[in-house]
From TrEMBL:
Gene Ontology biological process terms in this record: proteolysis; signal transduction
Top-level taxon of the source organism: Bacteria
Protein name: Carboxyl-terminal processing protease
Location of the PDZ domain: 247-287
Organism: Pustulibacterium marinum
């Protein structure tokens, strides 16, 4: 190669690297500016921040301590307490060292896996595994001393996953010693593909690592402050709207690395196209003259490409599941109705006719200016026509959404008055109110919640509880008492991304907060998984729980005496076989989690341990209550809609069956029955 060409190549590489570095540094600076200006409780940029970002970023790069080594950590330690200074001085040259180390280790890991692939793996029990207890605080880093030890770590991982896969899919005629090498090769192939996806091109890897770094930096301020690239922003928008521009296709990847269409969303452009079906294999994807390499592609990379706002039309080359015909399909992003974000309503028809509404999220609708509160109102009016005596609003597993929709929803059930107190990043308090007289439903009401009911769900539950308008049934909620907005990192550069930043804390009209503690139910139900799911208080850097002094001109209704109802509920629960089963499952889960004995890497030992866990899960999945108290019926309006759609009817029947066996819903029905009869 001529010297001039070598110099030109060097210049281009250096230019691209420095250009990327400068862009990253601008984004780093601007992300911090957004946070410092708008965050509810901005923190000083100091060594504490630097240490947190350093540790958390390395955990993000190597979540299982299987890529980096102790010498790598030693070489990067000089940056541990300097990241704050780099930000102040707008010096982002440090990133190149993280990038170089990580990229080198990814390539080294490819070599390690290739070596293991031609090695006979030992399942005799010479090596053993140690299981961490759920919630246990682990070492800061558990890196291998060198490549040799790293290879041993990987070998143990491959052997464990080989045994797991054999136990998952092998039948009674299978012989482990014969099947294991094939399973191990598949697992190694998938791991190699995961690495290949990361190493696909330098620009992509740099961008991913920079995005991960910015998101790690944001999380120092609180767990709900995040950095979004454009694709992540589009994905987030879809999760909080009931209509959104999308092609309406979901994907899955099997053990052989084949990407196929797992679901086609009704009403989408894919759904309207007669050449796109579930099970079709995806061979090629193009958009805007960009082609996605399907060899070893990760599903995350695929979705990132699909959700990129610049890619408004996606070209697919697919192989049909049935005919194996290969065809080209172009799908344009269109506004579609996100069915997962819409309400379900039924009648619990027994000695009392009780309405039931499930709200999965507090979604909005940009096109029509109406969201979930409007949909709930429609369903309540339909249920009223059916002559219901009480209402259940099910907010279990509802992670939140629009606070405006939540305020409007509370307003449906209270006759004017304050809903919540909001304190913003400028330490200014405001009282959110319902200004409308009258309600659309005035009979007894219950809100069902659990540990996954968060944010707007807690906002609604707390407001209805404080107004003595609804009783709360279930388990303590998640404990997120803060609100966020999304700000562009740089308004002049649409590719710079966005920051979802916490700008306010939410308080009950009493001045108390549910931050960290959650909303405590009036009627608490037993839960087999209590203590095992992550709640707000389990995260690092959470905002503190406090109270606020704010004069709320509101005459609080007298507290209702519900002690007799609570006693009846406790007595019912104590006598139920389901309660005994739940307590047994909790005991078994604790015993399983507390077992710290090392497990030999043998088929028999791992099968024995996994069998214990499988039996626990089978008990949990088999927890179907016997219901002789009510049937689940559709409203007349729903019957008319379902009569024209057989697919929707099948889905609806499945939902009704699940609800009819819902232990918590049955007890909620009894609680409302007691209240109605009182």
């Amino acid at each position: 190669m001529r010297i001039s060409n070598i110099l030109l190549l060097f210049f281009l590489i250096f230019y691209n690297s420095s250009f990327s570095q400068n862009t990253f540094c601008d984004n780093f600076t601007n992300v911090n500016k957004v946070i410092q200006e708008f965050h509810y409780a901005p923190k000083t940029v100091d060594d504490s921040l630097s240490n947190y970002v350093f540790v958390s970023y390395l955990h993000k790069l190597d979540e299982d301590d299987l890529i980096l080594t102790k010498p790598d950590l030693d070489s990067l330690q000089k940056h541990r307490y300097q990241l704050d200074d780099y930000l102040t001085n707008q010096d982002c040259s440090f990133f190149e060292e993280f990038y170089s180390v990580y990229k080198k280790r990814l390539n080294d890991t490819k070599n390690i896996l290739s070596e293991i692939n031609v090695t006979q793996l030992d399942y005799s029990g010479k090596d053993s595994l140690h299981y961490y207890q759920i919630g246990e605080k682990r070492k800061e880093f558990s890196y291998a001393d060198d490549t040799k030890e790293l290879k041993r770590f990987w070998s143990k991982k491959i052997r464990k996953e080989t045994i797991d896969r054999y136990l998952d899919i092998a039948d009674s005629t299978s012989i482990f010693s014969k099947e294991a090498p094939n399973y191990a090769q598949q697992i190694i192939s998938n791991e190699l593909c995961t690495i290949a996806d990361k190493l696909n091109d330098d620009v992509s890897l740099r961008k991913k690592m920079q995005d991960w770094f910015l998101n790690t930096f944001c999380s120092y301020f609180d767990p709900h402050t995040n950095y979004f690239n454009n694709s992540e922003k589009s994905f987030f928008d879809e999760s909080i709207h009931d209509d959104f521009k999308s092609i309406g296709v979901f994907f899955s990847k099997n053990d052989e690395g084949i990407v196929s269409i797992s679901e086609v969303q009704p009403g989408s452009s894919a759904w309207k196209h007669d050449m796109v079906s579930e099970g079709d294999e995806v061979l090629e994807i193009n958009s805007n003259k960009k082609k996605l390499d399907m060899n070893c592609i990760g599903v995350e990379t695929l979705y990132s490409f699909i959700y990129d706002p610049e890619n408004t039309a996606i070209q697919f080359k697919i192989r049909k599941k049935e005919t194996k015909e290969i065809t080209d399909v172009t799908l344009k992003k269109e506004n579609i109705h996100v069915s997962e974000n819409t309400v379900d309503s039924y009648i619990l028809d027994g000695s009392q006719k009780i309405g039931y509404i499930r709200l999965p999220s507090f979604y909005t609708s940009e096109d029509f200016g109406m969201g979930c509160a409007n949909d709930i109102a429609k369903e309540v009016l339909r249920l009223n026509k059916e002559g219901i005596s009480a209402l259940v609003l099910d907010l279990r597993d509802n992670g939140g959404g629009s606070l405006q929709e939540a305020t409007d929803l509370v307003g449906l059930f209270i006759d004017r008055g304050p809903v919540a107190i909001i304190n913003n990043f400028q330490d200014q308090s405001d009282i959110y109110k319902d200004y409308n007289r009258g309600t659309i439903f005035s009979k007894p009401m219950v809100v069902m919640v659990n540990g996954h009911s968060a944010s707007a769900s807690e906002y609604v539950s707390a407001a209805l509880q404080d107004h003595q308008r609804a009783f709360i049934v279930g388990s303590p909620t998640f404990g997120k008492g803060s609100g966020q907005i999304i700000r562009p990192v740089n308004p002049e550069d649409p590719k710079a991304g966005f920051v979802k930043v916490t700008i306010e804390k939410l308080y009950r009209i009493t001045g108390k907060s549910w931050q960290k503690s959650g909303v405590i139910p009036d009627f608490e139900l037993p839960s087999a998984l209590s203590g095992y799911g992550k709640r707000e208080s389990d995260y690092k850097n959470v905002l503190a729980k406090d109270t606020i002094v704010k004069k709320v001109y509101f005459k609080f209704p007298s507290a209702k005496n519900i002690s007799s109802f609570q006693v009846k509920s406790s007595e019912r629960l104590a006598a139920l076989p389901e309660t005994a089963t739940i307590n047994h499952i909790k005991d078994e889960l604790k015993r399983y989690a507390d077992d710290r004995n090392p497990i030999p890497l043998t088929l028999k030992a791992i099968e024995s341990r996994e069998q214990i866990f499988k039996e626990i899960i089978d008990q949990l999945n088999g927890l179907h209550a016997k219901n002789t108290f009510f049937t689940i019926e559709n409203t007349e309006a729903a019957k008319e809609i379902l009569s024209k759609n057989s697919d929707a009817t099948t889905i609806d029947d499945s939902k009704k069956k699940s609800l009819s066996e819902d232990f918590e819903l049955i007890e909620t029905y009894h609680i409302l029955n007691d209240i109605i009869k009182h």
